[in-house]
Amino acid sequence: MTNTDFRIERDSMGDRQIPNNVYYGIQTQRAIENFPISGLKPLPTYINAGLYIKKATAIVNGELNCIPADISKAIIQATDEILAGKLRDQFVVDVYQAGAGTSHHMNINEVLTNRALELLGDEKGNYKRVSPNDHVNYGQSTNDVIPTAIRIGGLLALSQTLQPALDNAISTLEAKAVEFQDIVKSGRTHLQDAVPVRLGENFQAWAQILTEHQNRLYIAAGDLMVLGLGGSAAGTGMNTHPQYRQRVIEVLSQLLEIPLEPAPHLMAAMQSMGAFVNVSGAVRNLAQDLVKISHDLRLMDSGPKTGFKEIQLPPVQPGSSIMPGKYNPVMAEMTSMVCFQVMGYDNAIVLAAQAGQLELNVMMPLIAYNLIHSIEILGNTISALTNSCIQGITANKERCLDYAEGSLALVTALNTHIGYLNAAAVAKESLETGKSLRQIVLEKGLMTEEELANVLDLEQMSSIVPL
């Protein structure tokens, strides 16, 4: 490299040559060297969360005359540019990094500093003019910024990805419930024949399940709106302006259009990861029911000749490299895989959350990635399953009705008319002889034909009793 290809930056540990074309600085460079672990970089939503915090703090610190007005303005402009899409490739620290997230935090501080320097007509690396620590990070610490960024990132991921996906899935399932309401099929418990149900009610049940999970997520998200920003290094608020804590939460609320509030005890907000465990648990809970729904779809579509084939999932790609004409329920299969990953991420979050000591939990980088990534991949999965699978499901009405009429579980409706033991004997004889339930009951004189027709009315049997 020539002298014009790099700049010399200095920190408390010494000097480093930094390529002149990058906007990160010496502490980010050290992190790149120290953590060549996974190749995973910070999630865009997590970066945005940090940028919103830096914009709010620059606004407030400028208003309170804690940093010069021109520097405040330059930092704000730099955050706006990056939020709009510039310099996104400058956030380069591996997900698995220094405890608490100091490396990622300094990566943000350095990029904003060097862009602010350019906007002020200065050269990158002139930290005497604009400092990553003394200006961009004024009144802040990794210890209060990172847990706040996880909260903001979680809220953004929920509102932008998961909640809209759930809204669409619920409305789609409800539309299918109406479409299939008149189709009678055999119910199944223990994977054995059970009493008849309506295909539409299967879809309405799934819509209700997702609605209940959506409500749980809304409640859990409330924990993320309580911020410990302003706690500084250990929750005492050291090196912050007396008005900073309240004002920065107000500005951040305005920027995000989210009703945020300061934590009642800043030290508690810094130490406990309970809010993240709570949200992750709600996401995991949703994932486990999505696995059940995806498995149900696969079973109901199984076949086409040797399975249930009560419904047809839309074929979206060839299903075999050797068997021509085969189509697999790939969207449902993908859904299960993502849900299993989400469950694994949740377990890692629980382990990381209990691993804090004294005034800080140093496992926050793992929690940040796992929580936000879980929310986003689950939201993307629900959207893909809804749009490429659920919307296009068709029903095999004749197949459904054949199974319903041939189910031995229809004998359940006879219990109150001929008694449980007589009904069990009828079912056993039907299975052994192949005779229908109707035929055996009439042969034994247990009921009249008119009584039997009324009791074994599939339409009536499969209707849900109203409250």
UniProtKB/TrEMBL annotation:
<keyword id="KW-0456">Lyase</keyword>
<dbReference type="Pfam" id="PF10415">
    <property type="entry name" value="FumaraseC_C"/>
</dbReference>
<dbReference type="InterPro" id="IPR022761">
    <property type="entry name" value="Fumarate_lyase_N"/>
</dbReference>
<feature type="domain" description="Fumarate lyase N-terminal">
    <location>
        <begin position="16"/>
        <end position="344"/>
    </location>
</feature>
<feature type="domain" description="Fumarase C C-terminal">
    <location>
        <begin position="410"/>
        <end position="461"/>
    </location>
</feature>
<dbReference type="Pfam" id="PF00206">
    <property type="entry name" value="Lyase_1"/>
</dbReference>
<dbReference type="InterPro" id="IPR018951">
    <property type="entry name" value="Fumarase_C_C"/>
</dbReference>
<dbReference type="InterPro" id="IPR051546">
    <property type="entry name" value="Aspartate_Ammonia-Lyase"/>
</dbReference>
<dbReference type="InterPro" id="IPR000362">
    <property type="entry name" value="Fumarate_lyase_fam"/>
</dbReference>
<dbReference type="InterPro" id="IPR020557">
    <property type="entry name" value="Fumarate_lyase_CS"/>
</dbReference>
<dbReference type="InterPro" id="IPR008948">
    <property type="entry name" value="L-Aspartase-like"/>
</dbReference>
<dbReference type="InterPro" id="IPR024083">
    <property type="entry name" value="Fumarase/histidase_N"/>
</dbReference>
<protein>
    <submittedName>
        <fullName>Aspartate ammonia-lyase</fullName>
    </submittedName>
</protein>
